[in-house]
Amino acid sequence: MTKQVKWSLTGIILLFIAGMIFYPQIKQHFPTDDSPDIAAMGTGQQRRVLNINAMIMDVQTLTDKTVTTADIIPDEEVNLSFETSGKIVEIYFREGTHVRKGELLAKINDQPLQAQLKKLEAQIPLARDRVFRQRTLLDKDAVSQEAFEQVTTEYDKLMADIDLVKANIAQTELRAPFDGIIGLRYVSEGAYTAPATTIAKLTKISPVKIEFSISEKYSDDIVPGADIVFRLSGSLRDYHAKVYAIESAVTIDNRSQKARAVYPNTDESIKPGRYASVELTKKEIRDALAIPSEAMIQEMGKSIIYLYKSGTAQPVEVVTGLRTESKVQVVSGVHRGDTVIVSGVMQLRTGLPVTVDKFISPV
User: Fold this and answer.
1) Mean pLDDT of the chain
2) Per-residue model confidence (pLDDT) at position 31
3) What angle, 0 to 180 degrees and rounded to 10, lies between the N-to-C axes of helices 111-121 and 145-170?
4) Alpha-carbon distance 205 to 264, whole Å?
5) Percent of the chain having pLDDT more than 90?
6) Could you tell me if residue 60 is left (phi over 0), alpha (psi between -120 and 50 degrees) or otherwise beta?
7) What is the C-alpha to C-alpha distance for residues 316 and 305, in angstroms, rounded to an integer?
8) Whole-angstrom Cα distance, residue 134 to residue 115?
9) In 3D, which of 223, 325, 329, 319 has the Cα closest to residue 285?
10) What is the DSSP secondary structure assignment for residue 217, as one 8-state letter?
11) How far apart, in whole angstroms, are the C-alpha atoms of residue 243 and residue 221?
């Protein structure tokens, strides 16, 4: 063995001996993942504490609602037109004003009819006298029953002709069929009109109707007399209306059923034709125990929530009832006064130490 090799072996042996001497000090300053935590060795195996939010269970009103779209329609609306043809001689209304039922709005020339009525009415005294004379003679057996009936029939015919002319005269008058607001007129005085000609539109907007459709699965929940809440497009105000009628059948095309509600609209601020959203209350439970939807998880087909007990999380299986957009009714498994963990539930395990950051209101 050469001298160089001997010195190399000697150096290796010295380094090995030095490593054995200083290894405990090096390991103390640079612990490995497999080495025990000194702090943990002194206080027991410590576990991470999870910060959570919790809710103390209490009864509350749980309402199941659905939202649909609606149209605002007038209580009554009609296109006004004459029942007969003729030249318009008078227009009595002003556009955009209120009119009363029966108010005269426009007039067609009725001079020929008035002349005919005058002619017929002039014959009434003579016809009446004939009937009187024939009745007197009949009482004395001076005329036959047939002669008396003939003059009586002529008198009745005269009166019927007068009624017919009066009815024709009435058709030359355009009157408001109900109280409402009359819109823009489409004709002028002197124009010739026919039954197909629209003179103006009359609309009754106090009250107004809210027309909406509901899915067939909710049709049993909406009945006449039910209250609804609707909002107009671009407004946050809630309006309350009452359902007064429901369509008798479900529409085949979209399996929905039409319904209408009525709103007083006493100030006439809501105009027909506007778009609205309707909030329908399907079911309401006044003394429900409910939790936020995010507080419950599903495990192996079971509904699980965690209760806060003595600083730890403890799982409980529950039976659920009514579900809304944000809450779930708990039928059994928890009681009033229990503290339910409502945040971080996906990180929870049985017995995990937790600390409550904030208590949220159940309402």
Assistant:
1) 87
2) 47
3) 160
4) 9
5) 66
6) beta
7) 5
8) 30
9) 329
10) G
11) 12
Tokens of 96: 């955009």
The first and second tokens of residue 356, run together, are: 């409550």
- The DSSP string of 245-302 is EE-SS-BTTTTEEEEEEEE--TT--SPTT-EEEEEEEEEEEEEEEEEEGGG-EEETTE
Helices (H), the chain: 3-29, 38-43, 111-121, 124-139, 145-170
| Long-range contacts from 150-157, C-beta under 8 angstroms, 24+ separation | 151/127, 154/127, 154/130, 155/127, 155/128, 155/130, 155/131
Q: Which helix (H) or strand (E) holds 228?
A: strand 227-232
Query: Which two structure tokens, joined as six digits, stand for 152?
Result: 């009586």
**Minimal CA–CA distance to 69: which of 212, 243, 228?**
212
Render pLDDT for 100-122 as a digit per residue (tens, 0 to 9).
999 999 999 999 999 999 999 99
d(CA 286, CA 336): 14
DSSP reduced 3-state for 97? coil
Sequence letter at residue 43: T
Q: Which pLDDT band, with edges at 50, 70 and 90, does 320 fall under?
A: very high
* pLDDT for res 7: 58
Mean pLDDT of 3-8: 56
Confirm if 356 and 312 have CB atoms less than 8 A apart: no
CB 62 within 8 A of CB 290: yes
- Sequence-separated (6 or more) residues with CB below 8 Å from residue 6: none
Q: Which of 10, 51, 35, 23 is nearest to 347 (CA)?
A: 51
